[in-house]
Structures are given as structure tokens and as C-alpha cells.
Amino acid sequence: MTSTSTLTALALTCSLKPSPEPSSSDKIATQVLDELRGHGVTGELVRVVDFDVRPGVQTDMGNGDQWPQLRQRVLAADILVLATPTWVGHPSSVAQRVMERLDAELSETDDQGRPSMYGKVAVVAVVGNEDGAHKIIADCFQALNDVGFTIPASGGTYWNSEAMNPKDYIELDSTPDAVASTNKKLAANAAHLARLLKQDQYPPAQ
């Protein structure tokens, strides 16, 4: 740890399984939060499907929409961990909805005209018993960057099962060395970048 300044992280896991059903997305998100903790980052994990997040591109869609509760947690965090399973080669529909709802943040600005997510870091974690992680990470990176998040170097981590031999991440007896190493690097870079941005925010909008 290179600084004692406090940072916070929020992991939004986008499993299709409601709690308390075991989730591979929860598992990899928890591992990332554990690594972040070693860099002075406190974190919490929320399974999005446990909330009634309505479709739409406003901060509050009304009629019992529970996205505003999650939005407040995103706004309070320095680092967002978006964790999603792979479904037919794509992020889950839950992850897609999160990114759609975050689109509203382009219209939410501070007193200097910066979108509300400026100065926040986002990383992506993907698990699946099929291929597709690289494309999912790329798609999520683009969406998150579009709405104002900053992506650190090595900001994605993933695990895919062997082709044509499906298995879930939660079924593994131990974390593969490559995944553990990537989680560690992701956490170090995310914490470093978040700390820099907290100390020196982006310039005001022109």
C-alpha cells in the first residue's frame, strides 16, 4: 500500500441468480474486493438482480424503481467493479441494464460541468462456461468510459471454462494462478489510479 488515503469500491454483480443462490460472478467480484482491500480500499458487494431495476435511461424511472438506491452507492464509491457472467457470448441482461441506466449520468454534472462519473475508476470481471470474455470486457469498457469512468491498465479479469467442457467458476477447487495474478494487478492499478484522480480531478468542462 502506497498511501493511507481512504478509498471505497462497489461491486455490482450481474448474475441472473437471486440471492442466496451461489454465484460465480459474486465469487470473482469478492476476490477483486479482497485484493483491493490490500491497497486501502474498503468495499461492498451488491447483487443487482435482488433489486427491481427498471428499464430506461433516466436516473429514476419511478413506479418502485430501485436503481436510485444503487445509484447512490455508485456515486459514493471511488471504484466500480462490474462483474458479469457470459451468456451466449455477451454480458448478462442485468449487466446491460446497469450500463443503460448509467447512461443517464452524462446529463448529471457537477458545478464545473463534469459528468457525475468523472474521477471514478471502473474495472470489469467476467466468468463463464463458454467463450466471450474478451469481447464482453471490451464492450463494458467502452460503455463505462462513455459515461465518464476511467479504465486502469489491466482493468479486466476473467475466467472461461475449457471449450465444449462447461464448468462454473464456483466449482473450482482453487483459483487458477493466472486469474489470481490478474486480480492482483487489476486491484493495484485501480487503487493507484483512483487515488490519483481523487487527489487531482479532471479539468472543468469547456
Automatic annotation (TrEMBL):
Residues 10-153 form the NADPH-dependent FMN reductase-like domain. One of its GO terms (molecular function) is oxidoreductase activity. It holds the Pfam family FMN_red. SUPFAM superfamilies: Flavoproteins. It comes from Actinophytocola xanthii. It comes from the Bacteria. This is Flavodoxin.
